[in-house]
Design a protein that fits this description.
single chain; mainly alpha; two-stranded antiparallel ribbon; 17 helices
Length: 443
């Protein structure tokens, strides 16, 4: 039982338990047991913090079903090993070496020192940010749904937003509130903070509380994550405004201020959040394709989002730039990137693209007779892989085979392609034989 297999099987265990709980009669508003496939799809989407659903969460599930869904989202956002290790620490259980290795791999840490403190910091940061987000949302929801109804809406959407899950109690997500600045900015701030990574949040906290902030130096990871995220958010906002600005079914019906809010929200939510303030199914083909690109990039390492991650994109771009300029070293912020990191970035890209293409091919076969366009299926597969949750509206109309393929895609996207491969195959071993070098033509 390797650390990779522990993590992958742990996610499967939580999905299985969540499926059984959502299957129970108490979880749905309709009498009787729910569909097992519906429960499986919803539980997988929740644990994988995706947000895709074949039913309307707000009307299909009872309060207990929504509460179970929210707990699954929280466990999935923290990660299986993080959640289980925190539970072990609370119960006073012994923290074994195997558990430390699994947590190290789950959090993508280079060492095992200070893992207990890091886990406590993650739990504290999650609780504080979700609490503050809930308070801000109460100012919006309580006047509309009363105290108790507004409280539940605030808690649900705060946790869903911070964990980049995208589940909403409204049948059309936030489309009815596209012109509400408080809701838009609170939700987008939660999404960004949840997807940017716990290490980045911790470093900013240390920077703010440091006695000599001028001496504090951010790590290369934080510099790369923050700068890449800001660029993607800015480019995404402008691009969506330019692409959809004249579309009467999306941004074209809004005034300039509302267009900015909607474009900003769309730029943020495509980074694996899943909420929407415009009708995704009525976007232009260009807008859908641009959304696919942003979804595939995703959030940042150590956060609650999916995709290939911002750091992977940055390493690949810098490596390409170095090759084009004839440089042998890849430099980012006056630091040389080790070759093993470049190899890992290439493996993530190739593995992710291979998975998406495989699932897209299979789902194109299973849904050949249902009239879905290739772009709609492409959008659905990438949304599932990047654990985004946005959809053009075809999720509920997929065949059972198509839904199972989406379930597999969500699972693979959440645990990570490299981690899944490490779990399926034996542990990698260093080569004992070194062969002579020889070059050949490339490109």
């Amino acid at each position: 039982m390797t650390p990779a297999r522990t993590i992958c099987l742990g996610f499967l265990l939580v999905i299985g338990v969540g499926t059984l709980l959502l299957w129970l009669p108490l979880s749905t508003q309709a009498p009787g047991w729910d569909s097992l496939w519906t429960a499986l799809f919803t539980a997988t989407s929740a644990v994988c913090v995706t947000g895709l659903s074949v039913v309307d969460v707000g009307t299909h599930y009872s309060f207990w079903g929504q509460l179970i869904l929210l707990l699954l989202v929280q466990i999935g956002g923290l990660g299986y090993m993080t959640s289980m290790t925190l539970l072990m620490l609370l119960l006073g259980r012994r923290f074994r070496l195997k558990d430390k290795l699994a947590v190290q791999q789950a959090l993508d840490q280079t060492g095992m020192g200070g893992i207990r403190g890091l886990l406590r910091s993650i739990l504290l940061a999650t609780g504080i940010l979700e609490f503050l987000g809930g308070l801000a949302l109460m100012a919006f929801f309580v006047p509309r749904f009363g105290f108790w109804g507004g409280l539940w809406h605030s808690i649900f959407h705060s946790i869903s937003a911070f964990n980049n899950a995208g589940f909403s109690l409204f049948s059309n997500s936030f489309m009815s509130y596209f012109n509400a600045p408080l809701l838009v900015f609170t939700t987008t701030v939660l999404i960004i903070l949840g997807g940017i990574g716990y290490q980045v949040l911790l470093e900013f906290y240390l920077r703010l509380t440091c006695k000599h902030p001028e001496r504090f130096t951010f790590s290369l990871n934080t510099k790369v994550v923050v700068s890449t995220t800001l660029v993607l958010l800015g480019v995404g906002t402008v691009a969506f405004w330019l692409i959809e600005g004249n579309n009467p079914d999306t941004l074209g019906r809004m005034n300039l201020g509302e267009q900015f809010l909607a474009a900003w929200f769309q730029s943020v939510t495509t980074r694996t959040a899943g909420f929407n303030t415009i009708d995704i199914g009525k976007m232009t083909a260009t807008g859908l394709f641009f959304t696919i690109v942003l979804m595939f990039i995703g959030a940042s390492p150590g956060g609650t989002g999916g995709g290939i991650k911002t750091t992977t994109l940055r390493v690949l771009l810098r490596a390409t730039r170095a090759i084009l300029r004839g440089h042998e070293e890849v430099i980012i912020y006056e630091r040389e990137i080790p070759p093993i990191l470049i190899y890992k970035a290439i493996a993530v890209l190739v593995g992710s693209m291979s998975l998406v293409l495989l699932m897209l091919t299979l789902i194109s076969i299973t849904e050949a007779e249902h009239g879905f366009t290739f772009l709609q299926l492409f959008f659905e597969v990438v949304s599932a892989f990047a654990t985004v949750g946005l959809s053009t509206g075809i999720t509920g109309g997929l065949t059972l085979s198509g839904k199972l393929l989406i379930i597999l895609t969500m699972y693979a996207g959440r645990v990570g392609v490299l981690l899944l491969m490490a779990a399926l195959f034996r542990e990698p071993r260093p080569l004992r034989t070194h062969y002579p070098e020889e070059t050949f033509l490339v490109g």
